[in-house]
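Preliminary data (for renewal application), nicotinamide-adenine-dinucleotide complex.
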Amino acid sequence: MKKLKVGVIGYGQRGTSMTKGVLCKMDNVEIAMVCDLYEDRVEKAQNDVLEKTGKKPRGTTVASEVINDSEVETVFIFAAWEAHIPLAIESMKAGKPVALEVAGAYSIEQCWDLVHTYEQTKTPVMMLENCCYGRREMMVLKMVREGLFGKVVHCDGGYGHDLRYEVAGGIKNRHYRLRNYASRSCDNYPTHQLGPIAQVLDINRGNRFLTVSSVASKSVGIRDYIERNLADDETLANMEIRQGDVVTTVITCALGQTVRLTLDTCLPRFYSRDFAVHGTKAYYQELNDSFYFEDNPEHTKLHEVSWKPQWGNAKEYEEQYDHPVWKRYIKEGMKGGHGGIDWLVVNDFVNHVVSGEPMPIDVYDIASLMCITTLSEQSVAMHGAPQAVPDFTNGAWLLRK
Ligand SMILES: NC(=O)c1ccc[n+]([C@@H]2O[C@H](COP(=O)([O-])OP(=O)(O)OC[C@H]3O[C@@H](n4cnc5c(N)ncnc54)[C@H](O)[C@@H]3O)[C@@H](O)[C@H]2O)c1
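Predicted structure:
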Protein backbone atom coordinates (compact mmCIF):
# COMPACT_ATOMS: atom_id res chain seq x y z
CA MET A 1 0.00 0.00 0.00
CA LYS A 2 1.32 3.44 -0.93
CA LYS A 3 1.86 5.47 2.20
CA LEU A 4 1.20 9.18 2.53
CA LYS A 5 4.39 10.78 3.87
CA VAL A 6 3.42 13.27 6.55
CA GLY A 7 5.15 15.91 8.63
CA VAL A 8 4.03 16.59 12.21
CA ILE A 9 4.44 20.11 13.64
CA GLY A 10 3.93 20.56 17.37
CA TYR A 11 4.69 17.76 19.80
CA GLY A 12 3.05 18.85 23.05
CA GLN A 13 0.07 17.05 24.59
CA ARG A 14 -2.05 16.90 21.46
CA GLY A 15 0.75 16.23 19.00
CA THR A 16 1.82 13.31 21.17
CA SER A 17 -1.63 11.74 21.49
CA MET A 18 -2.51 12.22 17.81
CA THR A 19 0.86 10.91 16.62
CA LYS A 20 1.12 7.89 18.91
CA GLY A 21 -2.59 7.16 19.15
CA VAL A 22 -3.68 7.75 15.55
CA LEU A 23 -1.03 8.55 12.89
CA CYS A 24 1.39 5.77 13.93
CA LYS A 25 -1.46 3.26 13.72
CA MET A 26 -2.59 4.13 10.20
CA ASP A 27 -1.56 1.66 7.51
CA ASN A 28 -1.60 4.32 4.78
CA VAL A 29 0.49 6.94 6.63
CA GLU A 30 4.22 7.22 7.25
CA ILE A 31 5.62 9.94 9.53
CA ALA A 32 8.57 11.31 7.60
CA MET A 33 9.44 14.31 9.77
CA VAL A 34 8.58 15.72 13.20
CA CYS A 35 9.01 19.22 14.56
CA ASP A 36 8.68 21.21 17.74
CA LEU A 37 10.20 24.46 18.97
CA TYR A 38 11.85 22.46 21.76
CA GLU A 39 14.69 20.06 21.06
CA ASP A 40 13.63 17.63 23.82
CA ARG A 41 10.15 17.31 22.31
CA VAL A 42 11.61 16.67 18.84
CA GLU A 43 13.71 13.86 20.28
CA LYS A 44 10.73 12.45 22.15
CA ALA A 45 8.66 12.53 18.96
CA GLN A 46 11.38 10.71 17.02
CA ASN A 47 11.69 8.05 19.70
CA ASP A 48 7.92 7.63 20.09
CA VAL A 49 7.48 7.10 16.35
CA LEU A 50 10.45 4.71 16.23
CA GLU A 51 8.97 2.71 19.09
CA LYS A 52 5.52 2.57 17.51
CA THR A 53 6.45 2.00 13.86
CA GLY A 54 10.05 0.77 13.80
CA LYS A 55 11.06 3.74 11.65
CA LYS A 56 12.68 6.92 12.99
CA PRO A 57 11.49 10.14 11.35
CA ARG A 58 13.83 13.06 10.77
CA GLY A 59 13.48 15.88 13.28
CA THR A 60 13.81 19.67 13.36
CA THR A 61 12.92 22.70 15.48
CA VAL A 62 12.09 24.75 12.37
CA ALA A 63 8.59 24.23 10.96
CA SER A 64 9.53 25.60 7.51
CA GLU A 65 11.96 22.70 7.10
CA VAL A 66 9.08 20.24 7.45
CA ILE A 67 6.83 22.21 5.13
CA ASN A 68 9.46 22.55 2.41
CA ASP A 69 10.92 19.07 2.75
CA SER A 70 10.87 17.20 -0.55
CA GLU A 71 9.72 13.94 1.05
CA VAL A 72 6.87 15.42 3.12
CA GLU A 73 3.59 15.35 1.17
CA THR A 74 1.10 16.46 3.83
CA VAL A 75 1.39 18.53 7.00
CA PHE A 76 -0.31 18.13 10.38
CA ILE A 77 -0.30 21.16 12.68
CA PHE A 78 -0.65 20.37 16.38
CA ALA A 79 1.17 23.53 17.46
CA ALA A 80 0.14 26.41 19.74
CA TRP A 81 -2.88 28.49 18.64
CA GLU A 82 -0.83 31.46 17.40
CA ALA A 83 1.04 29.28 14.89
CA HIS A 84 -1.92 27.63 13.17
CA ILE A 85 -2.87 30.06 10.42
CA PRO A 86 0.70 31.19 9.53
CA LEU A 87 1.87 27.57 9.23
CA ALA A 88 -1.24 26.51 7.31
CA ILE A 89 -0.68 29.35 4.83
CA GLU A 90 2.97 28.38 4.41
CA SER A 91 1.99 24.75 3.77
CA MET A 92 -0.64 25.72 1.22
CA LYS A 93 1.87 27.93 -0.59
CA ALA A 94 4.25 24.97 -0.67
CA GLY A 95 1.46 22.89 -2.24
CA LYS A 96 1.19 20.56 0.78
CA PRO A 97 -2.33 19.63 1.92
CA VAL A 98 -2.61 20.64 5.54
CA ALA A 99 -4.65 19.63 8.57
CA LEU A 100 -4.80 22.04 11.46
CA GLU A 101 -5.91 21.41 15.00
CA VAL A 102 -8.74 23.44 16.49
CA ALA A 103 -8.12 27.03 17.59
CA GLY A 104 -9.48 30.56 17.29
CA ALA A 105 -8.05 33.32 15.10
CA TYR A 106 -6.25 36.47 16.24
CA SER A 107 -7.49 38.79 13.49
CA ILE A 108 -10.05 38.86 10.72
CA GLU A 109 -7.27 39.67 8.30
CA GLN A 110 -5.52 36.36 8.93
CA CYS A 111 -8.78 34.52 8.22
CA TRP A 112 -9.00 36.32 4.89
CA ASP A 113 -5.32 35.50 4.22
CA LEU A 114 -6.13 31.83 4.72
CA VAL A 115 -9.08 32.02 2.33
CA HIS A 116 -7.14 33.96 -0.31
CA THR A 117 -4.20 31.54 -0.09
CA TYR A 118 -6.55 28.64 -0.69
CA GLU A 119 -8.21 30.41 -3.62
CA GLN A 120 -4.81 31.13 -5.18
CA THR A 121 -3.17 27.76 -4.52
CA LYS A 122 -6.16 25.38 -4.33
CA THR A 123 -4.12 23.38 -1.81
CA PRO A 124 -6.58 21.46 0.39
CA VAL A 125 -6.86 22.50 4.03
CA MET A 126 -9.02 21.00 6.76
CA MET A 127 -9.62 21.72 10.43
CA LEU A 128 -9.34 18.61 12.57
CA GLU A 129 -12.56 19.39 14.43
CA ASN A 130 -13.00 15.96 15.92
CA CYS A 131 -16.30 16.88 17.60
CA CYS A 132 -17.94 17.01 14.16
CA TYR A 133 -17.38 13.23 14.22
CA GLY A 134 -18.99 12.65 17.64
CA ARG A 135 -21.54 9.85 17.72
CA ARG A 136 -24.36 12.03 19.04
CA GLU A 137 -23.41 14.99 16.86
CA MET A 138 -23.57 12.82 13.73
CA MET A 139 -26.78 11.16 14.88
CA VAL A 140 -28.46 14.54 15.49
CA LEU A 141 -27.18 15.82 12.14
CA LYS A 142 -28.70 12.81 10.38
CA MET A 143 -32.01 13.37 12.17
CA VAL A 144 -32.00 17.07 11.26
CA ARG A 145 -31.29 16.23 7.61
CA GLU A 146 -34.14 13.69 7.63
CA GLY A 147 -36.52 16.38 8.93
CA LEU A 148 -37.16 14.91 12.40
CA PHE A 149 -36.49 18.27 14.07
CA GLY A 150 -38.73 20.24 11.67
CA LYS A 151 -37.17 23.67 11.27
CA VAL A 152 -34.14 24.23 13.49
CA VAL A 153 -34.51 27.54 15.30
CA HIS A 154 -31.75 27.65 17.91
CA CYS A 155 -28.67 25.68 18.97
CA ASP A 156 -26.64 25.75 22.16
CA GLY A 157 -23.05 24.70 22.52
CA GLY A 158 -19.97 25.38 24.50
CA TYR A 159 -16.80 24.21 26.05
CA GLY A 160 -17.08 23.43 29.71
CA HIS A 161 -13.79 22.06 30.98
CA ASP A 162 -12.02 22.84 34.24
CA LEU A 163 -8.68 23.99 32.82
CA ARG A 164 -7.39 25.79 35.92
CA TYR A 165 -4.61 23.23 36.42
CA GLU A 166 -3.55 23.41 32.77
CA VAL A 167 -3.69 27.22 32.52
CA ALA A 168 -1.88 27.80 35.82
CA GLY A 169 0.72 25.18 34.89
CA GLY A 170 1.55 27.03 31.67
CA ILE A 171 5.06 28.15 32.60
CA LYS A 172 6.20 24.76 33.85
CA ASN A 173 4.60 22.95 30.90
CA ARG A 174 5.57 25.56 28.28
CA HIS A 175 1.87 25.77 27.35
CA TYR A 176 0.32 28.53 25.24
CA ARG A 177 -2.96 28.81 27.16
CA LEU A 178 -1.47 30.81 30.05
CA ARG A 179 -0.26 33.69 27.89
CA ASN A 180 -3.63 33.82 26.13
CA TYR A 181 -5.57 33.79 29.41
CA ALA A 182 -3.28 36.47 30.83
CA SER A 183 -3.78 38.90 27.95
CA ARG A 184 -7.15 38.31 26.28
CA SER A 185 -10.81 37.87 27.19
CA CYS A 186 -12.93 36.10 24.58
CA ASP A 187 -14.40 32.80 23.52
CA ASN A 188 -10.96 31.40 22.80
CA TYR A 189 -12.21 27.86 22.04
CA PRO A 190 -15.48 28.05 20.09
CA THR A 191 -15.08 25.34 17.49
CA HIS A 192 -15.70 22.12 19.43
CA GLN A 193 -19.43 22.65 19.51
CA LEU A 194 -19.78 25.35 16.88
CA GLY A 195 -18.32 22.96 14.26
CA PRO A 196 -21.18 20.44 14.60
CA ILE A 197 -23.72 23.28 15.00
CA ALA A 198 -22.46 24.87 11.76
CA GLN A 199 -23.20 21.57 10.02
CA VAL A 200 -26.70 21.38 11.52
CA LEU A 201 -27.36 24.95 10.32
CA ASP A 202 -25.81 24.47 6.82
CA ILE A 203 -23.34 27.29 7.42
CA ASN A 204 -21.57 28.29 4.17
CA ARG A 205 -23.98 26.01 2.29
CA GLY A 206 -27.19 28.05 2.13
CA ASN A 207 -26.75 29.87 5.43
CA ARG A 208 -24.07 31.90 7.16
CA PHE A 209 -23.16 33.47 10.48
CA LEU A 210 -24.13 37.15 10.53
CA THR A 211 -23.23 38.68 13.90
CA VAL A 212 -21.45 37.82 17.13
CA SER A 213 -22.10 39.35 20.57
CA SER A 214 -20.14 38.24 23.63
CA VAL A 215 -20.05 39.20 27.28
CA ALA A 216 -17.52 37.99 29.83
CA SER A 217 -17.98 37.53 33.55
CA LYS A 218 -15.34 38.82 35.89
CA SER A 219 -12.04 37.01 36.02
CA VAL A 220 -11.37 35.41 39.40
CA GLY A 221 -11.24 31.62 38.91
CA ILE A 222 -7.61 31.21 37.81
CA ARG A 223 -6.30 33.77 40.32
CA ASP A 224 -8.22 32.09 43.11
CA TYR A 225 -6.79 28.72 42.05
CA ILE A 226 -3.24 30.11 41.97
CA GLU A 227 -3.62 31.75 45.39
CA ARG A 228 -4.82 28.51 46.95
CA ASN A 229 -2.53 26.07 45.15
CA LEU A 230 0.55 27.82 43.76
CA ALA A 231 1.11 30.74 46.13
CA ASP A 232 4.88 30.09 46.20
CA ASP A 233 5.27 30.81 42.48
CA GLU A 234 6.29 34.45 42.33
CA THR A 235 5.74 34.87 38.59
CA LEU A 236 2.24 33.47 38.79
CA ALA A 237 1.48 35.40 41.97
CA ASN A 238 2.17 38.67 40.15
CA MET A 239 0.47 37.74 36.91
CA GLU A 240 -2.80 39.37 35.89
CA ILE A 241 -5.42 37.17 34.22
CA ARG A 242 -7.74 38.97 31.85
CA GLN A 243 -9.79 36.03 30.55
CA GLY A 244 -13.34 36.24 31.92
CA ASP A 245 -14.31 33.05 33.76
CA VAL A 246 -17.51 32.49 31.77
CA VAL A 247 -17.91 33.96 28.30
CA THR A 248 -21.39 33.90 26.76
CA THR A 249 -21.66 34.44 23.02
CA VAL A 250 -24.74 34.83 20.85
CA ILE A 251 -24.42 34.32 17.11
CA THR A 252 -27.17 35.20 14.65
CA CYS A 253 -27.53 33.53 11.24
CA ALA A 254 -28.71 34.77 7.86
CA LEU A 255 -31.71 32.38 7.93
CA GLY A 256 -32.81 33.65 11.34
CA GLN A 257 -31.46 30.98 13.71
CA THR A 258 -29.56 31.88 16.85
CA VAL A 259 -26.68 30.08 18.56
CA ARG A 260 -25.60 30.46 22.17
CA LEU A 261 -22.05 29.43 23.08
CA THR A 262 -20.68 29.23 26.60
CA LEU A 263 -16.96 29.04 27.39
CA ASP A 264 -16.49 27.91 30.98
CA THR A 265 -12.89 26.86 31.69
CA CYS A 266 -11.80 28.79 34.80
CA LEU A 267 -14.13 27.36 37.46
CA PRO A 268 -14.72 23.88 38.90
CA ARG A 269 -17.11 21.84 36.76
CA PHE A 270 -17.46 18.59 34.86
CA TYR A 271 -16.62 18.41 31.15
CA SER A 272 -19.43 19.16 28.72
CA ARG A 273 -19.99 20.74 25.35
CA ASP A 274 -23.56 21.74 26.23
CA PHE A 275 -24.87 20.72 22.80
CA ALA A 276 -28.59 21.34 22.25
CA VAL A 277 -30.75 21.64 19.14
CA HIS A 278 -34.16 23.29 19.31
CA GLY A 279 -36.47 22.56 16.35
CA THR A 280 -40.16 23.03 15.63
CA LYS A 281 -40.74 19.28 16.07
CA ALA A 282 -38.00 18.05 18.38
CA TYR A 283 -35.33 18.93 20.90
CA TYR A 284 -32.03 17.29 21.81
CA GLN A 285 -29.88 18.10 24.82
CA GLU A 286 -26.44 16.67 25.53
CA LEU A 287 -26.42 17.44 29.26
CA ASN A 288 -28.96 14.71 29.98
CA ASP A 289 -28.50 12.99 26.60
CA SER A 290 -32.18 13.19 25.73
CA PHE A 291 -34.50 13.66 22.80
CA TYR A 292 -37.97 15.13 23.01
CA PHE A 293 -40.24 14.48 20.03
CA GLU A 294 -43.58 16.28 19.89
CA ASP A 295 -45.17 13.33 18.09
CA ASN A 296 -44.17 10.87 20.82
CA PRO A 297 -47.07 10.67 23.33
CA GLU A 298 -44.71 9.28 25.97
CA HIS A 299 -42.72 12.52 25.80
CA THR A 300 -45.64 14.94 25.68
CA LYS A 301 -47.53 13.16 28.46
CA LEU A 302 -44.58 13.38 30.83
CA HIS A 303 -43.94 16.96 29.84
CA GLU A 304 -46.95 18.00 31.90
CA VAL A 305 -45.77 16.33 35.10
CA SER A 306 -42.09 15.67 35.23
CA TRP A 307 -39.86 14.93 32.30
CA LYS A 308 -37.05 13.42 34.31
CA PRO A 309 -38.03 9.78 33.65
CA GLN A 310 -37.16 10.38 30.00
CA TRP A 311 -33.67 11.71 30.72
CA GLY A 312 -30.98 9.69 29.00
CA ASN A 313 -33.36 8.28 26.38
CA ALA A 314 -31.01 9.02 23.44
CA LYS A 315 -29.62 5.47 23.59
CA GLU A 316 -33.02 4.14 22.54
CA TYR A 317 -32.63 5.90 19.18
CA GLU A 318 -29.15 4.64 18.34
CA GLU A 319 -30.19 1.56 16.42
CA GLN A 320 -32.45 3.51 14.11
CA TYR A 321 -30.61 6.81 13.82
CA ASP A 322 -26.88 6.22 14.35
CA HIS A 323 -25.04 7.78 11.42
CA PRO A 324 -23.82 5.18 8.89
CA VAL A 325 -20.24 6.27 9.62
CA TRP A 326 -20.73 5.26 13.26
CA LYS A 327 -22.63 2.06 12.43
CA ARG A 328 -19.68 0.93 10.33
CA TYR A 329 -17.12 2.14 12.88
CA ILE A 330 -18.72 0.21 15.74
CA LYS A 331 -18.96 -2.91 13.60
CA GLU A 332 -15.35 -2.70 12.41
CA GLY A 333 -13.96 -1.71 15.83
CA MET A 334 -13.34 1.76 17.19
CA LYS A 335 -9.80 3.12 17.36
CA GLY A 336 -7.90 6.10 18.73
CA GLY A 337 -8.58 8.67 21.43
CA HIS A 338 -11.49 10.80 22.64
CA GLY A 339 -14.01 7.97 22.24
CA GLY A 340 -12.92 7.23 18.68
CA ILE A 341 -13.43 10.67 17.13
CA ASP A 342 -9.70 11.41 16.71
CA TRP A 343 -9.33 8.45 14.40
CA LEU A 344 -12.43 9.38 12.40
CA VAL A 345 -11.34 12.96 11.77
CA VAL A 346 -7.77 12.08 10.72
CA ASN A 347 -8.97 9.18 8.61
CA ASP A 348 -11.43 11.45 6.81
CA PHE A 349 -8.71 14.03 6.13
CA VAL A 350 -6.28 11.40 4.80
CA ASN A 351 -8.99 9.86 2.59
CA HIS A 352 -9.81 13.28 1.13
CA VAL A 353 -6.14 14.04 0.47
CA VAL A 354 -5.80 10.73 -1.36
CA SER A 355 -9.08 11.04 -3.31
CA GLY A 356 -8.73 14.77 -4.05
CA GLU A 357 -12.38 15.32 -3.06
CA PRO A 358 -13.22 18.71 -1.45
CA MET A 359 -12.47 18.76 2.28
CA PRO A 360 -15.48 18.22 4.59
CA ILE A 361 -14.42 21.09 6.89
CA ASP A 362 -12.97 23.41 4.30
CA VAL A 363 -11.26 26.79 4.23
CA TYR A 364 -14.55 28.74 4.38
CA ASP A 365 -15.67 26.70 7.40
CA ILE A 366 -12.31 27.21 9.06
CA ALA A 367 -12.44 31.01 8.57
CA SER A 368 -16.08 31.16 9.76
CA LEU A 369 -15.30 29.14 12.89
CA MET A 370 -11.97 30.70 13.81
CA CYS A 371 -13.13 34.30 13.32
CA ILE A 372 -15.63 33.88 16.18
CA THR A 373 -12.76 34.18 18.66
CA THR A 374 -11.56 37.49 17.21
CA LEU A 375 -15.07 38.91 16.99
CA SER A 376 -15.94 37.80 20.51
CA GLU A 377 -12.75 39.48 21.77
CA GLN A 378 -13.85 42.75 20.14
CA SER A 379 -17.41 42.35 21.41
CA VAL A 380 -16.33 41.62 25.00
CA ALA A 381 -14.18 44.75 24.91
CA MET A 382 -17.28 46.68 23.79
CA HIS A 383 -19.55 45.16 26.49
CA GLY A 384 -21.42 42.88 24.12
CA ALA A 385 -21.72 45.15 21.05
CA PRO A 386 -22.57 43.01 17.99
CA GLN A 387 -19.75 42.45 15.50
CA ALA A 388 -20.37 41.61 11.84
CA VAL A 389 -19.10 38.23 10.61
CA PRO A 390 -17.46 38.59 7.18
CA ASP A 391 -18.87 36.55 4.32
CA PHE A 392 -15.70 34.60 3.57
CA THR A 393 -17.40 32.95 0.58
CA ASN A 394 -18.19 36.32 -1.08
CA GLY A 395 -21.76 35.24 -1.79
CA ALA A 396 -20.99 31.67 -2.78
CA TRP A 397 -22.79 30.41 0.38
CA LEU A 398 -26.05 31.05 -1.48
CA LEU A 399 -25.16 28.37 -4.03
CA ARG A 400 -22.80 25.98 -2.25
CA LYS A 401 -24.18 22.55 -1.37
N1 LIG B 1 -9.25 18.44 19.07
C1 LIG B 1 -9.00 18.18 20.34
O1 LIG B 1 -9.68 17.39 20.98
C2 LIG B 1 -7.84 18.87 21.01
C3 LIG B 1 -7.44 18.50 22.29
C4 LIG B 1 -6.35 19.16 22.85
C5 LIG B 1 -5.69 20.16 22.16
N2 LIG B 1 -6.13 20.48 20.90
C6 LIG B 1 -5.44 21.51 20.11
O2 LIG B 1 -4.13 21.06 19.82
C7 LIG B 1 -3.24 22.15 19.75
C8 LIG B 1 -2.05 21.91 20.67
O3 LIG B 1 -2.50 21.82 22.01
P1 LIG B 1 -1.60 21.15 23.15
O4 LIG B 1 -2.45 21.07 24.35
O5 LIG B 1 -0.92 19.97 22.62
O6 LIG B 1 -0.52 22.29 23.39
P2 LIG B 1 0.99 22.11 23.87
O7 LIG B 1 1.46 23.45 24.34
O8 LIG B 1 1.09 20.96 24.80
O9 LIG B 1 1.74 21.73 22.54
C9 LIG B 1 1.93 22.62 21.49
C10 LIG B 1 3.33 22.38 20.96
O10 LIG B 1 3.50 23.13 19.77
C11 LIG B 1 4.83 23.62 19.76
N3 LIG B 1 4.89 24.78 18.88
C12 LIG B 1 4.33 25.99 19.04
N4 LIG B 1 4.60 26.79 18.00
C13 LIG B 1 5.34 26.04 17.14
C14 LIG B 1 5.94 26.32 15.88
N5 LIG B 1 5.83 27.51 15.29
N6 LIG B 1 6.65 25.34 15.30
C15 LIG B 1 6.80 24.12 15.90
N7 LIG B 1 6.23 23.81 17.07
C16 LIG B 1 5.53 24.76 17.69
C17 LIG B 1 5.13 23.94 21.22
O11 LIG B 1 6.51 23.99 21.49
C18 LIG B 1 4.41 22.80 21.94
O12 LIG B 1 5.27 21.74 22.20
C19 LIG B 1 -4.07 23.38 20.10
O13 LIG B 1 -4.49 24.00 18.94
C20 LIG B 1 -5.25 22.82 20.83
O14 LIG B 1 -6.38 23.65 20.71
C21 LIG B 1 -7.17 19.84 20.33
